[in-house]
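Dear support,

I submitted the protein below through the web form. The confirmation email said the job was done, but the results page showed an empty box. After a refresh the structure appeared. I'm attaching both so you can tell me whether what I see now is the final result or a partial one.
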Amino acid sequence: MPYQKINPQIIEKHLQSRFIEEGFLSLADLPKPSTFKDMDKATQRIVQAIHQSEKIILIGDYDVDGITSTSLMKMFFNDIGVELEWIIPNRFTDGYGLSENLIPRVVGFDLVITVDNGISAVRAAELCKEHEIDLIITDHHLLPSIVPDAFAIVDQKQQDCTFPYEEVCGAQIAWYLIASLNKALNSQVDIKSYLGLVSIAIIADMMPLQHINRAMVTAGLKLLNRSQLPAIRAFMEKLDKVALSADDIGFQIAPVLNSAGRMDDAKWSVEFLLSQNIYDARVRLERLIDFNNERKAIEQKITDEALVLVNPDDKVIVVAGDDWHEGVVGIVAARVGRRFEKPTIILTQSENGDLKGSGRSFHVCNLFKITNPCRPLLNKFGGHDAAIGLSLPKENLNALKKEINQNYLLENYDETSFDPDILGELSFSHIDFKLVNMMKSYEPYGQGNPRPKFITKDVTIEDVSEMGKEKEHRRFTFLHNGVTQQAVLFKTKEVFHIGEVVSVIYGINENHFNNRVTLQLMVEKIII
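What the results page shows now:
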């Protein structure tokens, strides 16, 4: 592991290099809505529908981005006093996005608007046309070879779209549509107040926290922390927080909002976000937390079963089970992938006998790129560099395993640089509050701006103890070059011994306890 020795100056230079713009962007730097292809066309059609009292229906998606996009649009229509029906497809009975399955439910409407989906809905678009329904697609995903025949398509990944940022999420595009409608209708709605929910989607959908995404999340977090939305108040009560951070959204709020769609129906999450009072919000939040607890238990069981089936010699892990819950296979793929430090695809048998599942990449591997040539083996396929969804006939499983592993080898990935997020080798003598405060100025951390990680070698374990109900965590005192640091390692049953000399991979955290603030290493891995 040939890591460069670093100091606070080198760390700051590295963090600065993640942002191409001079200084950080603010909301004043947001491009105009009209820079999106078809935004003006979509706006005019919706304004016409509103003025003529046409029937409008919104189709969302069952992940956090789709849930928040749907909620934002519904909130805006509520604010302007216009009726808007909405559907979040059920993962298990409807499938993804605007599918043929939903057409019977949209017949009779004059206008269908999608958020965070629709760019691959070719057949559904044909059916809308047959029923004389105008279709406006707003999406942020990659365009397929055949694009739906819709009245308007707002998607920044269209070649002739002049919007300058490629990596934005569905809720951002929904917000831009709201901004455009607000101006066209002269509605005077405070659309800035919606940025709190937008920031949740940006973080949850793992958009790079750079350029306008950073500006929107930074503003959105401030708005969330003084938000009067009952759903946000209920979350902050439950988490016992006076202020929410990007980590709170990524690790606490997003999984809870996601869990309804994974375990039952995502409409519960939309209804929670749309709660009109704190009492309803509290009750609805408890339902989501129950879903999330159920999700965790099932996910753990499937992970344990999947680990047994892994061939550790494979470069890309592909594992299939007979009756695994399809709502959690993506999370299981991430967990198995982290365990083996390899890209992983987890599949389960669906009702029609096909295998259906999700994949998560690991480090430098572009999972979409190496799976794309396997399309002849697949029934359905979509996603991006880091995450994919797919289905295939059961008899094609072995061929998929073989081809995807060959494709991985053809890319000649450098596996020696096993973690590009590690900035370098840091001496404990450099770890102090000044370093932490400097790193704070580059928050929020997340996709595209990962929280800084370091490695320190020749560290002596001075003390180690068990923590947690199941004794599943470890607390350490480490010694390096005469400097001690306190540290924690979560979710491990590994046994460590006092006196062992190890290498430690970690991040640095402030630990607030009993009105005292101390520095603590958040250990990711200990190499003996």
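Response: this is the final, complete result; the empty box was a page-load delay. The chain has three domains: 35-287, 310-410, 419-527.
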